[in-house]
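Researcher: Please generate the 3D structure of the following complex. Treat every line as part of one assembly.
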Amino acid sequence: MCACNVEVVKLVGKYLNTPVGPICYNTDKVLTTVLDKQNVEGFASIVLRLASKSGSPMSQEQTLLCYQWLEHIAMYSNQAATNPTFAKNFLQDINKALEKNTFLTGQFLTVADIAAYYVLYSIIERLSVLERESILHVCRWSKHIQAQPRVCASKPPLPLNTLTLSLLAPAVH
Amino acid sequence: MAAGVLYTYPENFRAYKALIAAQYSGVDLKVAPNFVFGETNKSEAFLKKFPAGKVPAYESADGKVLLTESNAIAYYVANAALRGADAATQARVLQWMSWADSELLPASCAWVFPYLGIMPFNKQNVERAKSDLLSALKQLDAHLLARTFLVTERVTLADIVVFATLLHAFQHVLEPSVRASLVNVQRWFLTLAHQPHVQKVLPSVSLCAQAPVYDPKKYAELAGKKDGGKKDKKAEKKPQEPKPKKEEAPPADDLELDEKPKESKDPFDSMPKGTFNMDDFKRCYSNEDEAKSIPYFWEKFDPENYSIWYAEYKYPEELAKVFMSCNLITGMFQRLDKMRKQAFASVCLFGTDNDSTISGVWVWRGHELAFPLSPDWQIDYESYDWKKLDPASEETKKLVHDYFSWSGTDKQGRKFNQGKIFK
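Model: Done. Output below.
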C-alpha cells in the first residue's frame, strides 16, 4: 500500500482546480506526470508544480517549507501506512509541529496542508479515540483543513468531532 | 454599507476591533483626521453626537448612525461572515465578546497599565490581576486546544475582539516563559496577527521579549516624553517597587480605575521643629524679589535644625533635550511631593540640548539626607551627588544666592537655562 499515491495527487488537483496530467508510476516506481509538456517526477515536485500552475503565489520561504514537508511526508508516509508503531511516531512529529503553528508551514494555509491532509486521512481514520487523543494538535488541524472550501468535495470529512469537541474541550465558563 | 468615520486616538486597541472588522468586510471606515484626545471629544459638536464623550465613536457617512461602544461599532462595520451565519453562531460570537470585556479586559488593564505608566504600581493589585488574567487565558488555551479559531473554522468577530483585547498583554507583559504555558493561545494569537487583513491595521505586532520592569519615572512623567537610556539603569537600581503617590488622571478616561494612596505620617515629624518657618520663607520667596528674599532666608535660617545641601546630577552626559531634563526635575519633585512641607529647593538646568548639567540647592529639616526617611522618596536621589554645605561659609552664601536667584553658571561655565523651584 502506498500513501503518497496517484489518488492523493488527483485530490490535490481537484482542490486546486488544476488538471494533473497523465499521472502514473514510471519504471523506477516514482510518481510521474506531464505538465506543460514537461516531465515532472516525484510527489513533492508534482504537488508544488500544481500549486504554482493554479496561481496561488507563495513566498520563497513558504515554497521551501512546503517542499520540506511534502518530501518528509513522501518519505515516511508509506511506512506509516503499513506499520502502526511507525505511524505513531510519524504523527507525533507532525503533532509537535502543529502545536506552535496553526498550519504546517506557519501562519498560512498552503498546498502542503492540503496534500498532507489527504495523505494522513487514511492513517488517522484507522486510529482509535484514545490514540487520537495523543495527537490533539493534528486533530485540531485536520478539523480545520477539512472545513476549508473544496477540501471535502470528494471525500467525507474525518469524524473527529466526537472526541475533541465533546470530550476534551471543556464547556467554556 | 456601513461606511463612516471612526473617532479615536492613535493605537487604541478598542478602535482596532472596528478597523480590523472593516478590513474583513471591506467597509470604508476612516479614522477621523485631526482628532485630539481630550479636545475633539470634549467639544460641543462631539458631545452633541456622543454625550458620553468617549472614544472610539462612530458616525456613518450619512450621519444617521452614531455608535460608541467598540464592540457595537465592530459589529456594525462587520459582515455576515464575521458575525456568524446562524443565531447559535452569532450568540457564541457575542459570548466571546462579552467574555473579553468581563474576564480579560479588567485584569489585562490592571496588569499592563502600571508598566506603561498609566496607573500607579501596587504590587498586590498587579499580582491579583496577573493571576486573574492567567486563569482566564488558561480557559482560552483549553478551548483553543481543539480549535483553530474561537467559534468557527474561520475568523469571526469573536477572534478579532479577543485578539484586540489581548494585544496589550501580549505586547507588554506576557513574557516568553508565560507564553510557553499558553501554547494554543499563542498559536492562535500569532495566526491572527499574520492574517493579511489584520496586518493592514497592525503591520507588525512585537511580542513581549522579557519580563516587564516597573519604571516609576514613566508613571510620573505620564508616558509621552520619556528619556530613553536612563530608565533601565534606574530600574535595575531599584528592585523593590516604590509606589508614587501622586494621582493623575489616566489618559484613557473611559476606564474606571480607583487609586487609593495610603495615608502615612510625615517622616519629618521625628525631628525638632526649630525656628525656621518654611512656609513663611516660601511665601516671601514667591512674593518678593530675590534681593529681599535671600537676605530674609539668612536672617531666619536655623542652622541647628535645618541643613543646606548641594545636589548634582550624576549622569549629565545622558541628558539630551532640555525639555526632557526639565521633566526629570519636575518628575522628581512630584515624587517627593510629601517632602514639600519641610523642604525647599531650587534646581537649575545649565547649558543647551545635548550639553547640559543639572544641579541644585536644597534645604530641609534635619541634618541627615532626608530621602531614606520614606520609601517614596528613594527613586531619584541616588542619581545625584549630595554634598552638605556649611551654612556659615561664604561659598555657601554664594551658591545659595546663585541658585535661588537663578543666576550664575555651572562648574564648567555653562549658562543658566531653566530653573525649577521645589516648594
